[in-house]
Records
---
Amino acid sequence: MNTKIYCLEQCFLPKNWELLLSAVKNVAGFCKESGKYDIPTLPVKLGHSLSKCAKVLRTKAIMEDNEDVKKSVEGFLKLYEDEWNERISVKARQTLYDAKFN
């Protein structure tokens, strides 16, 4: 498995999905034991930014008639739509909720 992403476009390759999720959790300080983030707003913001960048790249691919890039980005967006909330955002929002009421 590739353990490095060298440019933003590589984030949108579906084969790098697990690596991307791991990187987001790492940069936001996710703790497996507690299921909480050190910086809980960061994964939510990163998700929104990644989604926007993917849509820009998809538009560029459509304009350039690049089916390979378009297909990869659409795969990424499908993964994002299906999994981001469940695997990233829910735990981030729970961390925020817990911090607010503790």
---
Amino acid sequence: MSLTIQLQTMLSMLAMGAWIGASLDTYGKLTYQPRSFRWTVAIRDLLFWCVQALLVFYVLYQANLGELRGYIFVALLCGYAAYRALLQSVYTYLLDRLIMLVVSIVRFIRKSVYYILINPVKWLLKLTLSLCMIVLTLVWKICLVISSIIWKPLWWLFRPLFQSLSKSKIYGKMVPYFRKLKEKSQSVWKKNDKR
């Protein structure tokens, strides 16, 4: 292995050490880590470290065709330590600001969708329901007026018949049914008048 390839490998491993430090900070900020043990957290952590290992090996393969030497691990550790000492505070500050920006953009989009799409649809549904109730009430009132217009002439027409029936024995048996019918019709009229 030539000196140029060794230097290239050292620099790339230093960069990968810094990358691992930044990835750890990002992973810690973006994921919830409960204090108690959970299998989902363990599997997620294992997948994170598998991805990091694959990235390191890919960069190492690009630098020196995947040849492992002892100084590679030292370079990774030095890169991680350099990140912790020099770049961590700046990176976490920028990461916090980026997360706050993304959260505010998502909130803005949610509010915009609510006020532009959902709120007008709700208002239209309420308006449609109110109009339907008005139409149904109007139709009911018209039906009541029409039935009273039809009922009164029929009452005057069949009144002599009812009076003659009232003197018969059949009427005495039917009086309770007529009273119930009259009470029900009066209660319906009262409810409609209140509306």
